[in-house]
Amino acid sequence: PFQPQRVMDVATGTGDFAILAYGMLRPERLIGTDISEGMMNVGREKVKRVGLSDKITFVREDCTSLSFADNSFDAVTVAFGIRNFEDLDKGLSEMCRVLIPGGHLVILELTTPDRFPMKQLFALYSKIVIPVLGKLFSKDNNAYRYLPQTIKVFPQGEVMTKSIAQAGFSRVEFRRLTFGICTLYTATK
């Protein structure tokens, strides 16, 4: 409902969420940022294929020290990447800094379900299925073993909302999706 015109997608990776966000929001400018130039190169190719190279750009950035001026963006998004931030508090503070007053933060992140039976099913899935699929696709015994661990140790729910609020945001809310497997956090600067 806010129709942001300047959007930054942090930890954009290969740009899938940036492309989706552009399609839904149609901002004047969308910048995907990430520390991995290799992943963004894949994103650049995807953006080129769908004819959005003039609308979506990619810039190598460290989320804990963004090069953008204060009050540069109407909205900042992070989809499935914030749990990998080296310094969560600094990253949240930087995202707050570059947002305009009244700007919006949207975070979508994997979380651990907290209710029966999804909690138990997710435990089995994360301990057995994810590592097996990781090994199958990557030929590496340790591939994707880290994923359930990063989800488990990352602040979730009320704890995460407190971290977001401490970074300078207000109207911080969260909503569990897909039976608690992921959570949507929203906030306003």
Question: Can you summarize this structure?
Answer:
The chain is of the alpha/beta class and 189 residues long. The chain has 6 helices and 7 strands.
Tell me the span between the first and last alpha carbons.
16 Å
Coarse morphology: globular
Please state roughly what percent of the residues sit in beta strands, choosing from under 5%, 5-15%, 15-25%, 25-35%, 35-45% or over 45%: 25-35%
Q: What is the average per-residue confidence, as pLDDT, rounded to a whole number?
A: 92
What is the radius of gyration computed over CA atoms, rounded to a whole number of angstroms? 17 Å
Strand order of the largest sheet: 3-2-1-4-5-7-6
The tally of helices reads: 6
The major sheet is characterized as:
7 strands, mixed
**What's the SSE pattern?**
EHEHEEHEHHHEE
Q: Give the class from helix and strand content and strand pairing.
A: alpha/beta
Helix content: 25-40%
List how many beta strands DSSP finds: 7
Low-confidence stretches: none
